[in-house]
Amino acid sequence: MENHLAKSTEERTFQYQDSLPSLPVPSLEESLKKYLESVKPFANKEEYKKTEEIVQKFQDGIGRKLHQKLLERAKGKRNWVFVVLIIEN
């Protein structure tokens, strides 16, 4: 009985997954603004200013290229989300 309940719930939860529209890719600017908003409560003024500088550099540089790749991925994939790890020394 327990196994049947779990399977039944899973089927109902994902039953209409294929008929739902994909979420749009947010703009780079919107994403970076949300990122800065999420960082602000945890950073002091100096840390936040440095973070803003890094975000601006990212936005003006590789961020544009990565965002373009994300937009391209979204054209052909239902789930366009992917993770990019950037390590700055």
TrEMBL record:
Q: Where is the Choline/carnitine acyltransferase domain?
A: 23-81
Q: Which GO terms describe its cellular component?
A: peroxisome
Which reactions appear under catalytic activity for this entry? 4,8-dimethylnonanoyl-CoA + (R)-carnitine = O-4,8-dimethylnonanoyl-(R)-carnitine + CoA
User: Matching PROSITE patterns, A to Z?
Assistant: ACYLTRANSF_C_1
Question: A GO molecular function for this record?
Answer: carnitine O-octanoyltransferase activity
Q: In which pathway does it act?
A: Lipid metabolism; fatty acid beta-oxidation
Q: From the Swiss-Prot or TrEMBL record, give the protein name.
A: Carnitine O-octanoyltransferase
Source organism of the structure: Panthera leo (Lion)
Its gene name is CROT
